[in-house]
Amino acid sequence: AAAAAAVPVQRSERKRKYNTHYCVFHQFQAPIKMEWLTTNIAHSTEFLLPCWSWFRRMNATDDCGIVLPSNQSFHRITDHQAPSWIRQMVDDAMRCKVIELPQRFRRADQTPLGPHAIQHIPNLIKIRPRFGMYRYLDEPSDAWALRRRLVSDEEITKVKGPGKPLRIGGLNRPTQRSVTNMMEILDALQEQYPYNSTAEMVYFNESYSLKEQAKWFATKDVILAPHGAGLANAVFITKGTIVMQMYPPLFFFQSLDPLIEQAGGIALDWYNGTNPLMDWYHSKEHSWQSHNANRHANMTPDVQEVVDKILAALDVTVWNRLRLDRWKSVPEEKKLKIYPQRRKRRSEDGNEKKTKKQGE
């Protein structure tokens, strides 16, 4: 009886093994350095999040794998040498197994994963250069599905949502690239909503687990932070969250703005200069050393300028939310009365398209 009962278990294990979907990275996949995957939190999202979107498209989020070359990139994760944020993202959020790619396989499509394994080799060139071509996620629902593996919707709605105070958060850096007047900015924002808002400032470090960081981001309506790796947690925000990044002089990389927008948020920037792109270009062109040094400079933003940008974005998001809620409460019969010509025009356009197709 014990032997008979063990047979279906073996079959199910075999089925799960051969249906695994693998996201394959290779050490010769230019132009991104492979060591960034296991050393830099912000750059690791460039590798991991496109894989997560592909796993969701293939309905393979419960049986996924990541293949890394057998060099330091692989051993940093397996030997727990990579930052805890990256390890927890792979183990706890994505829940993917990590597999070694032997060095004798010079190409990623030669991986020995079995005949029934489904492989995906990300085209990392698509996300370079920075700015406009960055693509982390295919759609916002990919980010929300990843967030729900760490923070449930019930945990969020207990503290955030309609009828709850506006939650404002400041994520600061302790030394380099720090916002020296962060508390002053938070106090000024809170004065705009004195009876219906909360504000707090934190410094993330290795003592914060990925779940704690995800919950902090997911339960905020407004987030202010200097540009940095901590904003990789923007993948966990909810729809309509306002995230403002602040940059020191002669340093302006909008690499995380697409992540904020692709997760359903609103990305804002504050820069201490005249023209961010031209300032950055000229500083890099003339002196790369000075540009690299400026990235660590502290900043003191103009409080009223920051507050005005946040309030303008809040008015847009609140108005859209109210308009959507009111429109949902309108009966269907009244909607037809409000826009009869518009609906008639749509039906006529649809009939014209049908007749054109039939004529063709």
How would you portray this structure in words?
There is one protein chain. By secondary structure, the protein is of the alpha/beta class. 47% of the residues lie in helices and 13% in strands. It is built from 15 helices and nine strands. Strands 6-5-7-8-9 form a five-stranded parallel sheet. A four-stranded parallel sheet has the order 3-2-1-4. Helix 11 crosses helix 12. 32% of the residues are buried. The model is unreliable at 1-18, 127-131 and 338-346 (pLDDT under 50).
Summarize the entry for a quick read.
The chain is of the alpha/beta class and 360 residues long. The protein has helices at residues 2-18, 36-39, 41-57, 72-78, 84-94, 140-148, 153-157, 182-192, 210-218, 257-262, 276-286, 288-294, 303-329, 332-338, 340-359; strands at residues 21-24, 64-69, 97-101, 118-120, 166-171, 197-202, 222-226, 242-247, 266-271. Helix 8 crosses helix 13.
Low-confidence runs of at least 5 consecutive residues: 1-18, 127-131, 338-346
- Report the biggest beta sheet as strand number plus sense, adding barrel if it closes: 5 strands, parallel
Estimate percent helicity: 40-55%
What structural category characterises the helix and strand content? Answer: alpha/beta
